[in-house]
Each structure stands twice: as structure tokens, then as C-alpha cells.
Amino acid sequence: MDSTALIRLRGVGKSYPVAGGDFLALADLDLDIHAGEFVAVIGPSGSGKSTLLNLLAGIDKAGCGELSVAGQDLRALPERALSRWRGKAVGVVFQFFQLLPTLTALENVMLPMDFCDQWPAAERPARARALLER
Question: In this structure, is residue 2 part of a structural domain?
Fold first, then answer.
């Protein structure tokens, strides 16, 4: 296993409290993913796929182990810094898109731009149109 991996997990575990104890979603997971690799996460319901993806996106925190993405130790980040990291470094494509029905397609595409301060407000409509045309 390689320290130059884009995504690196060592001994990662995650459990959730349930009636009568804890549900162990991930246990002692080691994984390296390098830039350019294509990875599919497959398995039966309850095997930890969504938990793993939530940990990698910084949506949830591992209970134990080491987890780094592009050299950033996600377990060490306080919630505010983790939120900033997600806004700048993470893009998630959900199985079912969640558009806001009261917004136009253009407004739905522009909405995430309001939260990351990466594009000036005046540039957002043109950027959103370019993304929609791709």
C-alpha cells in the first residue's frame, strides 16, 4: 500500500448506534485509490457502500482509522474546515437528482455556486449556462 495514493484508508471503521448496541458498517478497511483509477463500489444492501462514499466525501466521519483524500486528513478536520473542504474539493453525483422544483434548470445549477465563493455572482449565470451545454 502506497502513501502517494489520492485516496488512502488505513484501519477505517464506522459504526452506528441501534437498539441493543452498535451496527458495524465498516471494519478495519484498508484501501488505496490512485489518480486516474476507475473504481466501482459494489455489494449487497447493508454492506457499507454508502457509508464508505459518505466518509470519502467528508459527509460523515470515520469512527477509527486514518482517512486521507489528496493528502488531506479528513478525520483531523474540525466540522467548519471539513465543510469548506467539501465545498471546494468534492462533487457528488447522486443516483436520483434532487432539483428544486421552484427553480429553473439554470438556477438549480447556479445554486451550489452561492455556497463556495469560487465564482463572482456576475459570472455565475454564464458559468451555469456553459455547464448545462456540456
Answer: no
Read off the CATH number of the domain in which 21 is found.
3.40.50.300
Residue length of the chain: 134
List pLDDT tens digits, range 19-47: 999 999 999 999 999 999 999 999 999 89
Contacts 24+ apart (CB under 8 A), 14-22: 14/48, 14/51, 14/55, 14/60, 14/62, 14/63, 15/63
The pTM score is: 0.73
DSSP string, 32-73: EE-TT-------STTSSHHHHHHHHTTSS--SEEEEEETTEE
Cell of 26: 465498516
Q: Are residues 61 and 81 in the same domain?
A: yes
- Average of pLDDT values for 4-9? 94
Model pLDDT for residues 64-85, shown as the tens digit of each residue? 999 999 999 999 999 999 988 8
Which one, of 13, 19, 97, 20, lies nearest residue 60 by Cα?
13
Q: How many CB atoms lie within 10 A of CB 110?
A: 19
Cα separation, 15 vs 26, in Å, equals: 7
